Protein backbone atom coordinates (compact mmCIF):
# COMPACT_ATOMS: atom_id res chain seq x y z
CA UNK A 1 0.00 0.00 0.00
CA UNK A 2 2.81 2.42 0.90
CA UNK A 3 4.63 1.79 -2.39
CA UNK A 4 1.31 2.31 -4.19
CA UNK A 5 0.91 5.71 -2.54
CA UNK A 6 4.50 6.66 -3.42
CA UNK A 7 3.82 5.70 -7.03
CA UNK A 8 0.59 7.70 -6.97
CA UNK A 9 2.35 10.76 -5.52
CA UNK A 10 5.06 10.58 -8.16
CA UNK A 11 2.64 10.12 -11.07
CA UNK A 12 0.30 12.89 -9.98
CA UNK A 13 3.10 15.36 -9.29
CA UNK A 14 4.55 14.70 -12.76
CA UNK A 15 1.16 15.28 -14.40
CA UNK A 16 0.01 18.39 -12.48
CA UNK A 17 1.30 20.95 -15.04
CA UNK A 18 -0.33 19.07 -17.93
CA UNK A 19 -3.56 18.61 -16.02
CA UNK A 20 -3.65 22.31 -15.16
CA UNK A 21 -3.05 23.36 -18.78
CA UNK A 22 -5.86 21.10 -19.95
CA UNK A 23 -8.15 22.31 -17.17
CA UNK A 24 -7.35 25.93 -18.06
CA UNK A 25 -8.22 25.28 -21.71
CA UNK A 26 -11.58 23.91 -20.60
CA UNK A 27 -12.55 26.35 -17.86
CA UNK A 28 -10.76 29.45 -19.18
CA UNK A 29 -10.16 30.78 -15.66
CA UNK A 30 -7.20 29.94 -13.40
CA UNK A 31 -9.35 29.58 -10.29
CA UNK A 32 -11.78 27.15 -11.92
CA UNK A 33 -8.87 25.26 -13.47
CA UNK A 34 -7.23 24.85 -10.07
CA UNK A 35 -10.52 23.62 -8.59
CA UNK A 36 -10.92 21.14 -11.44
CA UNK A 37 -7.37 19.82 -11.00
CA UNK A 38 -7.91 19.48 -7.25
CA UNK A 39 -11.12 17.52 -7.79
CA UNK A 40 -9.31 15.34 -10.32
CA UNK A 41 -6.50 14.57 -7.88
CA UNK A 42 -9.01 13.75 -5.14
CA UNK A 43 -10.88 11.34 -7.43
CA UNK A 44 -7.60 9.78 -8.59
CA UNK A 45 -6.48 9.18 -5.00
CA UNK A 46 -9.83 7.65 -4.06
CA UNK A 47 -9.95 5.51 -7.20
CA UNK A 48 -6.28 4.52 -7.36
CA UNK A 49 -6.87 0.95 -6.14
CA UNK A 50 -9.87 0.44 -8.44
CA UNK A 51 -8.33 1.84 -11.63
CA UNK A 52 -7.82 -0.40 -14.61
CA UNK A 53 -4.37 -1.88 -14.10
CA UNK A 54 -3.68 -2.42 -17.80
CA UNK A 55 -4.29 1.21 -18.78
CA UNK A 56 -1.79 4.02 -18.74
CA UNK A 57 -2.17 6.46 -15.85
CA UNK A 58 -1.86 9.68 -17.86
CA UNK A 59 -4.97 9.17 -20.04
CA UNK A 60 -6.82 7.94 -16.94
CA UNK A 61 -6.08 11.24 -15.16
CA UNK A 62 -7.15 13.29 -18.20
CA UNK A 63 -10.30 11.19 -18.40
CA UNK A 64 -11.17 11.94 -14.77
CA UNK A 65 -10.55 15.65 -15.35
CA UNK A 66 -12.61 15.80 -18.53
CA UNK A 67 -15.54 13.88 -17.08
CA UNK A 68 -15.54 16.06 -13.97
CA UNK A 69 -15.57 19.15 -16.22
CA UNK A 70 -18.49 17.81 -18.27
CA UNK A 71 -20.41 16.97 -15.09
CA UNK A 72 -19.84 20.52 -13.85
CA UNK A 73 -21.02 21.97 -17.15
CA UNK A 74 -24.18 19.94 -16.95
CA UNK A 75 -24.79 21.11 -13.39
CA UNK A 76 -24.10 24.76 -14.14
CA UNK A 77 -25.59 24.76 -17.63
CA UNK A 78 -23.40 27.60 -18.83
CA UNK A 79 -19.84 28.57 -19.83
CA UNK A 80 -17.72 31.31 -18.31
CA UNK A 81 -17.58 34.50 -20.43
CA UNK A 82 -14.05 35.71 -19.91
CA UNK A 83 -10.91 34.21 -21.42
CA UNK A 84 -7.83 34.38 -19.22
CA UNK A 85 -4.42 34.23 -20.83
CA UNK A 86 -2.41 31.11 -20.16
CA UNK A 87 0.39 31.96 -17.80
CA UNK A 88 3.82 31.60 -19.37
CA UNK A 89 7.26 31.42 -17.82
CA UNK A 90 7.74 34.15 -15.24
CA UNK A 91 11.29 34.71 -16.46
CA UNK A 92 10.08 35.68 -19.92
CA UNK A 93 8.79 39.14 -20.60
CA UNK A 94 6.90 39.34 -23.86
CA UNK A 95 6.67 42.53 -25.85
CA UNK A 96 3.31 44.22 -26.07
CA UNK A 97 3.02 43.06 -29.67
CA UNK A 98 3.66 39.44 -28.64
CA UNK A 99 1.13 39.72 -25.81
CA UNK A 100 -1.50 41.10 -28.19
CA UNK A 101 -0.82 38.36 -30.73
CA UNK A 102 -1.11 35.70 -28.01
CA UNK A 103 -4.32 37.22 -26.72
CA UNK A 104 -5.72 37.33 -30.26
CA UNK A 105 -4.78 33.69 -30.90
CA UNK A 106 -6.32 32.58 -27.60
CA UNK A 107 -9.47 34.58 -28.24
CA UNK A 108 -9.85 32.83 -31.61
CA UNK A 109 -9.11 29.48 -29.96
CA UNK A 110 -11.90 30.16 -27.45
CA UNK A 111 -14.36 30.47 -30.35
CA UNK A 112 -13.89 26.80 -31.21
CA UNK A 113 -16.47 24.39 -29.78
CA UNK A 114 -15.34 22.73 -26.54
CA UNK A 115 -14.88 19.24 -28.07
CA UNK A 116 -12.52 20.71 -30.69
CA UNK A 117 -10.60 22.74 -28.08
CA UNK A 118 -10.18 19.65 -25.91
CA UNK A 119 -8.83 17.53 -28.75
CA UNK A 120 -6.42 20.26 -29.90
CA UNK A 121 -5.02 20.78 -26.40
CA UNK A 122 -4.60 17.09 -25.63
CA UNK A 123 -2.90 16.27 -28.94
CA UNK A 124 -1.02 19.47 -29.80
CA UNK A 125 -0.12 20.83 -26.37
CA UNK A 126 -0.05 17.80 -24.09
CA UNK A 127 1.30 15.42 -26.73
CA UNK A 128 -1.13 12.57 -26.11
CA UNK A 129 -1.50 9.97 -28.83
CA UNK A 130 -4.82 9.54 -30.59
CA UNK A 131 -5.34 6.31 -28.62
CA UNK A 132 -4.66 8.08 -25.30
CA UNK A 133 -7.08 10.87 -26.19
CA UNK A 134 -9.64 8.26 -27.19
CA UNK A 135 -9.31 6.63 -23.77
CA UNK A 136 -9.26 9.93 -21.87
CA UNK A 137 -12.42 11.27 -23.53
CA UNK A 138 -14.14 7.90 -23.90
CA UNK A 139 -14.71 8.35 -27.63
CA UNK A 140 -13.65 6.21 -30.63
CA UNK A 141 -10.24 6.90 -32.14
CA UNK A 142 -11.87 7.76 -35.47
CA UNK A 143 -13.84 10.48 -33.71
CA UNK A 144 -10.61 11.84 -32.23
CA UNK A 145 -9.05 12.03 -35.69
CA UNK A 146 -12.07 13.65 -37.34
CA UNK A 147 -12.54 16.19 -34.53
CA UNK A 148 -8.85 17.05 -34.64
CA UNK A 149 -8.99 17.55 -38.40
CA UNK A 150 -12.09 19.75 -38.12
CA UNK A 151 -10.58 21.69 -35.22
CA UNK A 152 -7.39 22.44 -37.13
CA UNK A 153 -9.37 23.45 -40.21
CA UNK A 154 -11.72 25.68 -38.18
CA UNK A 155 -8.83 27.35 -36.37
CA UNK A 156 -6.99 28.01 -39.65
CA UNK A 157 -10.17 29.49 -41.10
CA UNK A 158 -10.61 31.75 -38.06
CA UNK A 159 -7.02 32.94 -38.41
CA UNK A 160 -7.57 33.74 -42.09
CA UNK A 161 -10.96 35.44 -41.63
CA UNK A 162 -10.10 37.59 -38.64
CA UNK A 163 -6.68 39.21 -39.01
CA UNK A 164 -5.05 40.50 -35.86
CA UNK A 165 -6.33 43.91 -34.89
CA UNK A 166 -4.09 46.41 -36.58
CA UNK A 167 -3.41 47.37 -40.15
CA UNK A 168 -5.00 45.92 -43.29
CA UNK A 169 -2.33 43.23 -43.70
CA UNK A 170 -3.18 41.75 -40.33
CA UNK A 171 0.03 42.92 -38.70
CA UNK A 172 -0.18 44.76 -35.44
CA UNK A 173 0.68 48.40 -35.66
CA UNK A 174 3.47 49.42 -33.30
CA UNK A 175 2.96 52.86 -31.81
CA UNK A 176 6.03 54.64 -30.50
UniProtKB/TrEMBL annotation:
GO molecular function: DNA binding; sigma factor activity
Domain named PhyR sigma2: residues: 12-65
Keyword terms: Sigma factor, Transcription, Transcription regulation
Any Gene Ontology biological process: DNA-templated transcription initiation
Annotated ranges, domain RNA polymerase sigma factor 70 region 4 type: 107-153
UniProt family annotation: Belongs to the sigma-70 factor family. ECF subfamily.
Stated name of the protein: RNA polymerase sigma-70 factor, ECF subfamily, PrtI
Organism this protein belongs to: Gallaecimonas xiamenensis 3-C-1
Amino acid sequence: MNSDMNELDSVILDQLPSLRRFALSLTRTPFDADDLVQATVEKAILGWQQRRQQGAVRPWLFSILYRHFIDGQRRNGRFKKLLQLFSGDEGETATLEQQLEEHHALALFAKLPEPQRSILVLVSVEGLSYQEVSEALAIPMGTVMSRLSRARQAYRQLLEEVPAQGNAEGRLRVIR
